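Key result, reporting period 2: structure in, sequence out.
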C-alpha cells in the first residue's frame, strides 16, 4: 500500500466539469494550496468523456454552461460532446490542472478523524494497488449517477430478439446502423438527440415512449451573441451573453411555475408549427406541467425535421414483449427493428459509490442535508458539488467553488481547523430530496439515497442562481449554523 504522507490542503474526487472547475477556482483564488484530484478514469471530462453516442451534446446553452472565468467563444448554442470535452481540457490546461490529477484511482472510502482533523482517503489503482491520501478538506465532484451502470429495466422476451440491444451509456464504437431499422426506447434528452443523429444513415428510426416530454426548439447559432463578440471585447461580450441567457432561462422557469397552462400552450404551439398541421399531438403532449420534469431542447428543430422527412417517427405506447424481429406493443402493433436502443436513463449514485465515515460512524447521504447547497450537514470539512437541474449545471459549480475558496481563506485567517454545519432547529424534510424540484423517473427511483432538503435556509437547494449568487459569493461566513474549531482560542484556554 502506498501512502501519501504529507497531508494535502484539499482533495477533489472527480475530474469532470465540477472537479476541473473546483481545481481552477482553487488555483485562481487560493494560490499556494496543495491539492490533488483523484479520477477513476484515464481522462478528463466526466460525462463528456464517458458518453460517446451519436450526436451527444449539451442541453443547456453554452454561454451559461461554460465557466464564468473562461469564456465560451464558439457560436453554437448547444455544443456537441467533443467540443465540450475540448473546452474542459483547454480550461484545465490553462490553469495547469492536469499535473494535479491522479488518473485511474477509484475512491473506496473517505474517513474523517476529529483527533487529527484530517480526511484519510483509500483508493485503488487500475492495477488493483491500494493507495492512501490524507487531506484537510474534501470536495466530492462525482456528479450524481453511476458510471458503471445505467438504468436498464428488463423487458419480456429480450432473449428472443435477434438484433442488437444497446444502452447509450455504453455505446459500441463499431456499431453500424446504416440501412438498419432502429427503435429507441425513451423520450428524454438522450433519445431526442439520438433520433435526428441516426436518422440520416438508418433506414428508419422510431422513438418509442411511454409518455411524451416537453420539447423546445432553439436556434443552433446565436446570431446576437455572434454580433456582440464581433463588436465588443471578448470578455464583455461573454458577460453580456451569459447574463442574458441566465435571465431568459430563469424567466422561462418562473413563467412555467406561475402560469403552467400558458406555458403549455406556448410549447405545444411551437411543436405543432414545427411538425405541421396534421401532426398527431398525442405524441408531444405530456401529462405533467412544464418543468415538473426537465425541459428538453433541440437545435434548429432537428428532431422535427427528421420526422417531417419521414426518416423518423414517434410511437406512444407500452411494451408488451420483445419479439425476434422487434417489439410488440400493448396495442398489438409490432415495431420492426434491427437495433434497439434503451435510452432509459441514469442510475443515481452519490459520492461515486464510495463509503464515507466520520469518527468511525458511516455516513448515509439520505440522512443529511446540504448547507447552502454545498457543505454536508454534520460532516467536517466536506463539500458535495451538485449543479442545477433547471439551468446550466456549471452555474452552481462556479458559485459553490467561489464559496469554498472564501471559506478556506476565512478559516486560514482565523486559525480554524474545521468547519461543520449543524442543524439546531431540526428542519430536515424527510419527504423532499435535493433534486425534489423534479419528478423525473431517475429522481423518483433515487429518492431513498439522495440527501434531504431542509424546510428553511440555509438547508434548501433553491435551484435559483439569482438568489444563490449573493449568498454564496458575498454572504456571511459565520452565521451560527456553521461551527468552527478555533485553534487560537483553544491554545489560550489550554495555557490558562
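The corresponding designed sequence is given below.
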Amino acid at each position: 500500500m502506498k501512502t501519501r504522507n504529507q497531508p494535502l490542503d484539499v482533495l477533489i474526487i472527480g475530474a469532470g466539469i465540477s472537479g476541473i472547475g473546483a481545481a481552477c477556482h482553487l488555483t485562481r483564488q487560493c494560490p499556494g494550496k496543495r491539492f490533488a484530484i483523484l479520477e477513476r478514469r484515464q481522462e478528463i471530462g466526466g460525462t463528456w468523456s464517458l458518453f460517446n453516442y451519436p450526436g451527444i451534446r449539451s442541453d443547456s446553452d453554452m454561454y451559461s454552461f461554460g465557466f464564468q472565468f473562461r469564456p465560451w467563444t464558439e457560436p453554437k448554442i448547444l455544443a456537441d460532446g467533443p467540443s465540450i470535452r475540448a473546452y474542459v481540457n483547454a480550461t484545465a490546461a490553462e490553469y495547469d490542472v492536469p499535473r494535479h490529477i491522479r488518473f485511474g484511482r477509484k475512491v473506496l472510502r473517505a474517513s474523517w478523524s476529529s483527533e487529527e482533523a484530517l480526511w484519510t482517503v483509500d483508493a485503488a489503482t487500475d492495477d488493483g494497488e491500494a493507495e492512501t491520501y490524507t487531506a484537510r478538506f474534501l470536495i466530492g465532484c462525482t456528479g450524481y449517477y453511476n458510471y458503471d451502470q445505467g438504468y436498464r429495466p428488463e423487458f419480456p422476451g429480450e432473449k428472443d430478439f435477434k438484433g442488437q440491444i444497446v444502452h447509450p451509456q455504453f455505446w459500441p464504437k463499431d456499431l453500424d446502423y446504416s440501412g438498419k431499422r432502429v427503435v429507441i426506447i425513451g423520450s428524454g434528452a438522450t433519445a431526442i438527440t439520438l433520433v435526428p443523429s441516426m436518422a440520416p444513415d438508418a433506414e428508419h428510426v422510431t422513438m418509442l415512449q411511454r409518455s411524451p416530454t416537453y420539447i423546445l426548439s432553439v436556434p443552433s447559432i446565436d446570431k446576437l451573441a455572434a454580433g456582440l463578440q464581433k463588436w465588443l471585447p471578448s470578455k464583455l461580450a461573454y458577460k453580456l451573453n451569459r447574463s442574458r441567457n441566465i435571465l431568459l432561462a430563469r424567466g422561462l422557469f418562473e413563467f412555467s411555475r406561475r402560469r403552467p397552462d400558458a406555458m403549455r400552450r406556448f410549447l405545444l404551439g411551437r411543436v405543432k408549427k414545427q411538425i405541421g398541421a396534421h401532426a398527431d399531438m398525442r405524441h408531444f403532449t405530456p401529462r405533467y406541467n412544464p418543468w415538473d420534469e426537465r425541459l428538453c431542447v433541440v437545435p434548429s428543430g432537428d428532431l422535427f425535421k427528421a420526422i417531417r422527412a419521414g426518416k423518423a417517427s414517434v410511437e406512444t405506447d407500452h411494451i408488451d414483449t420483445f419479439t425476434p424481429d422487434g417489439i410488440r406493443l400493448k396495442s398489438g402493433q409490432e415495431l420492426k427493428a434491427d437495433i434497439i436502443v434503451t435510452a432509459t436513463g441514469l442510475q443515481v449514485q452519490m459520492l461515486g459509490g464510495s463509503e464515507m465515515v466520520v469518527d468511525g460512524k458511516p455516513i448515509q447521504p439520505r440522512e443529511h442535508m446540504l448547507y447552502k447547497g454545498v457543505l454536508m450537514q454534520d460532516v467536517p470539512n466536506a463539500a458535495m458539488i451538485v449543479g442545477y437541474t433547471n439551468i446550466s449545471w456549471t452555474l452552481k459549480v462556479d458559485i459553490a467553488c467561489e464559496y469554498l475558496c472564501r471559506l478556506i481563506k476565512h478559516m486560514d485567517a482565523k486559525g480554524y481547523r474545521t468547519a461543520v454545519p449543524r442543524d439546531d432547529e431540526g428542519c430536515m424534510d424527510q419527504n423532499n430530496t435535493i433534486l425534489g424540484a423534479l419528478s423525473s423517473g431517475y429522481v423518483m427511483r433515487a429518492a431513498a439515497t439522495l440527501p434531504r432538503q431542509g424546510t428553511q435556509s440555509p438547508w434548501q437547494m433553491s435551484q435559483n442562481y439569482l438568489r444563490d449568487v449573493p449568498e454564496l459569493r458575498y454572504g456571511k461566513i459565520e452565521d451560527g449554523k456553521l461551527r468552527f474549531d478555533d485553534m487560537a482560542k483553544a491554545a489560550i484556554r489550554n495555557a490558562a
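The domain at 158-342 is CATH 3.50.50.60 (FAD/NAD(P)-binding domain). DSSP finds 13 helices and 26 strands in the chain. This case is discussed further under Risks and Mitigation.
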